[in-house]
Amino acid sequence: MHLPKRNGRSRTWARTLSILAAAIGTTSVLSGPVRAQVTFASAGNVAEVTYAKDVASIVQNNCLVCHRPGGIGPMDLATYEDARRYARRIREQVANRLMPPYYYDNDIGIQDLEHDWRLSQEDIDKVVAWVDQGAPLGNPADMPPPPDLSDTDEWVFAPEFGQPDVIVRSSPIDVPANGLDMWHRPIVPVGITTDRCIRAIQVKPAGDAKGVVHHANSTFQRQLDDGGFEGTGDRASEYAMGKLGELIPDGVCRVAPANSYIAWDIHLFPGGLGAAAANAVLPGNVVEMGLWLHPENYEYKYKQDLASYDIDEGELVMKPHGTAMSQGFQVFDHPVRIDSFQPHGHLRLRSASLEILYPETNRIEVISMISNWSAIWHQSHIYAADAAPLLPAGAVLIMKQWYDNSANNPNVADPEMWVDAGSRTADEMDHAWIAVTHLDEEGYQELLEQRRANQERRITDQ
Fold first, then answer.
1. Whole-number Å distance between alpha carbons of 148 and 343
2. In CA terms, which of 99, 406, 432, 444 is 20 to 30 Å from 314?
3. What's the pTM value of the predicted model, to 2 decimals?
4. Is 271 exposed, middle or buried, given 0-12, 13-18 or 19+ CB atoms closer than 10 A?
C-alpha cells in the first residue's frame, strides 16, 4: 500500500493512520456511500422474534469469531446484554449486508461458494425483526449452549480438519508505534521430507500481530549447496487483512515440495490498524502458516496453483478528486478450472469483477462481482466444485477494478493528492489472486460431462 510522501503533509499521514484505525473498528467506514446490496427487511412479515430462540444462534455462528473478548471486533457480543446494547448498530450492519464482512454481490455471477460468510435472507429478516420488536430476550430456556471462547487465535479450518499437520512460523520482528511501512522477509524450513499435496491452508498473524500485518505472501524455496536459496516454482499462499484461508478441491494437488523452505514477504504497518496495536510498540510479531496435508499416497491427476494476475499493464495513476478503472486479460493455451478469485487493492479500490470471454461465440459471462470491496476484508471467494468455471483453451479471463480518489470515498485521507501504483499503504495496486487447476482436453471434457449428469439428476429429483 502507499503512504503519502513526507513532503510536509504530516497531517495527511496522521489522517491516513486514523482512517485505517477506524476501519478495523467498523466496516461502515469502508462501505461509505456504496450500499449496493441493501436489504429491505422489516418486522412486518416476520412473527415474534426473541434473542434466545432466534437470534443467539445467528450471533454465535457468525459474529463471535471476531466480536469476543480478545477478538478483533470493536465490541463484544458474547452475551444477550452485549447484543441488546448494540442492537440498532447490529441492525444497520446486518440489514445492509455489511456484517458479516463478506462483500460479494448476491445477484451477479456464481453464488455457490465454499465458506461463504453471507447471512441468508431469513437470518437477516430475523435480526431486523428482533431489533424492530424491541430486542426481547424471550425465554432463557430457549438459549443455545454458550460456545467455547477460550481460544481467541483458533485455526479456522480446525473444526473441519482438526489442527494443521504442519505449522510454519516466520521469525519474530518488533514493529514500532510510528514510522513508514516495513517489510520482513525471513526464510524458514517447512519440515516435510517428501512431496505432499495441500488440502487446506491458512496464514494468520499470531496474537496482536493481526493489528500490524497488512499482507504476507509465501513461496516455496529450496536450499542450494552454497547456502543460498532458489524458488521451486510453487507458491504456498497469500494473506491480506481479514482473509480466511484457502481450500484446494479434491482430486487436484497444490504441491508442498520435500525439504523445502518458506520465503516470507511480510508487509507491516507501524502504528497498527486498530485497538490491538493502538500507537504502541508491538514486540515479537510472528505470522503463522497452517498446512493441512493429504496422505503421502494421495492420488491426483492435475495440479492447482495460486498466482497473482496483473490487471493494468500500464501505470495506474489517479489525479486529485479523480476516479479510475483498470482492466486486464489472461488467456490459457489449455483448458483450466478457476477455483477461487480474490481481488487486491488498497484504500481507493471500490469494486472488482471477473468475467470470461468465449471467443467462439463472443459471449461474455460475468463470474463474480464485488461492488463494495473492503480493504480490511480480503476474501478468497472459493467456488464450489460443481460451480467453479470451466474454461476451454483460448477463453479469456477479464479482470476489472474501479477506484475512487475523491471526497466521496471515506477512505481517502487527502483527495488533493495524486496517487499512483506502489506497495505502500497509501499507494494503489491492481491485481487479482486466482487459484487455477490446469487440465488437459480429456479432463476438461470429463468435468463437463459430470456437470451435465449432475444437472440432469437435479432436474429429475425435482
1. 33
2. 406
3. 0.85
4. buried
